[in-house]
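ASSEMBLY PREDICTION REQUEST
Request ID: AP-0331
Submitted by: J.K., bench scientist
Number of chains: two
Total residues: 650
Priority: normal
Notes: Please return the full assembly, not individual chains.
Input sequences:
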Amino acid sequence: MRYMVGIDLGGTNIVAGLVNEQYELVHKVKQPTEVAQGSDYVLSKMAKMVDELLEMADLTRQDLIAVGVGCPGIVDPIQGIAVFASNLKWNNIEVSRILGEKIGAPVFIDNDVRMYVFGEAMSGAGKGADVVHGVTIGTGLAAATVVHGELYYGSKFMAGELGHVVIEGEKTPCGCGLKGCLETVVSATGIVRQAREALEAGRESILREAFEAGELSAAHVSMAYDEGDALAQEILDYTGKVLGKGLAYSITLYSPDVVVIGGGSALAGDRILDSTRKTLTEMVYSGYMNNVTLKIGELIDDGGVIGSAAFAKSRVEKMEAVSAK
Amino acid sequence: MRYMVGIDLGGTNIVAGLVNEQYELVHKVKQPTEVAQGSDYVLSKMAKMVDELLEMADLTRQDLIAVGVGCPGIVDPIQGIAVFASNLKWNNIEVSRILGEKIGAPVFIDNDVRMYVFGEAMSGAGKGADVVHGVTIGTGLAAATVVHGELYYGSKFMAGELGHVVIEGEKTPCGCGLKGCLETVVSATGIVRQAREALEAGRESILREAFEAGELSAAHVSMAYDEGDALAQEILDYTGKVLGKGLAYSITLYSPDVVVIGGGSALAGDRILDSTRKTLTEMVYSGYMNNVTLKIGELIDDGGVIGSAAFAKSRVEKMEAVSAK
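STATUS: Completed
Returned structure:
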């Protein structure tokens, strides 16, 4: 049995997992990232976590096929460079080269959302499907697409920022410079904004207490929804509808077999997906709809780790296939 | 020098061209399709056209690498089957097998729009670009995307029906079963519909004469635009804006380097593309916009033939690469 290590690198924590070739998570370790210590410190810590995982399983570096790292921000997966990650304060860090030298095994990197969706495609809700489109809903909204086992990159590894498709009628300025982007509605931030605006306009809701205490979160809106609060239901229905509009574009253009919704579970599930499904039937040609299944992600917590490991394995297999020619 | 034949199979005419490996059209022949004679008759005629082209260039079948056929409707390019083409009255015709046997050379088929966009990507407005998204505007609107020399198919070879993305605020029923599809606005049919509705509502325009004579066409609207007619300008501005909305989704999701606009030239050009460009700046994140060029197709008339020939060549090269392993 050979193994991979998948590393989910975040601004707060690093989670690393030993994964076998059946994409099963064997061991997992977690450490604070300590961004302030600089990239070399963080990469050395990641190398130590790899050793720790091998030790836990009584393995040596020879048992390790490769390491995959899911990085936040803009990543060049071909060069193995973390191009820009604001929450790590990283600019053009050669992760694959530096970490590869520390570990003595090939290191492959990609954007964290692409890694998560790759994991769902290989071993989660999209397993066995030819084309898998995955969306993660958290502070923002991001997406990636896996086509016959390969991530779709487009030009400059930028394709698929579904969160920045502009929704007609929406006017909220987005961090990207546009107005009314999908993620200004469909995200934890977007849900809280909708609630805040309605409460400021005087709407009645059980959310007012949390709002006035300055504590309003998307989780409060979900709880209020479950208690039958009309405002919360309106907000999550509308959020689901806007998600449906975005997915209508994705489904028509990518034609996936499976759409996986991942990210913060409080926002997903039938609270928003009922109105998403209704919108899809109005906005997507039946030829596509008859052929696509909308699913909740199966790897939520370990998706980044398993996806990074699966990505590393697929890169090694690709290199082996090329060198066998 | 080796050659390909590209065949553009339409409901009215068959156009076949002898194309060299630099994608230059050496000879071209045209014949009526005669759909009523049945598929075997049409395929035999195509085989004769291939012989005619070889004879014109004093070549034999040994000089021919392969034949590519761009078919209307739904095509399975892997099986080589024309699955459904309403204007040919064809259902599940094994074009690659039958025509291949008649010609004695490999025959590859795909949908006609995909062939045209493949041609633009290999040898036209998208030459040298990594990712090319092409849109044809005619009676309807269709699109295809070429990614590193390969067509993007999605599941069941259906991806990318940009003409059937629903545009908010539009309500016109579409042949696909939805309402307000992009092609109900951005197409010759859509332009005539917009003009007809405005004239029926009493709008003044120099288009009224052609309308009352029952002769109104998209070409009339273009001519009226050029003469400064306010209604025609409004219609083509709006048409361009709606095209911009659709392309905003394509550009965000596919992240192309080049977008090629092909099809009926009367509709394209700056008459509609000025407002398309304006809409794109409002609806597409600058990271994509800085990286994409909007171009008019360069192969308009011979695009289907050259694209089909280029596609056949790429399939043969792919097969040679696989068998060399």
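REVIEWER COMMENTS: The first strand of chain B starts at residue 3 and ends at 9.
SIGN-OFF: pending second reviewer
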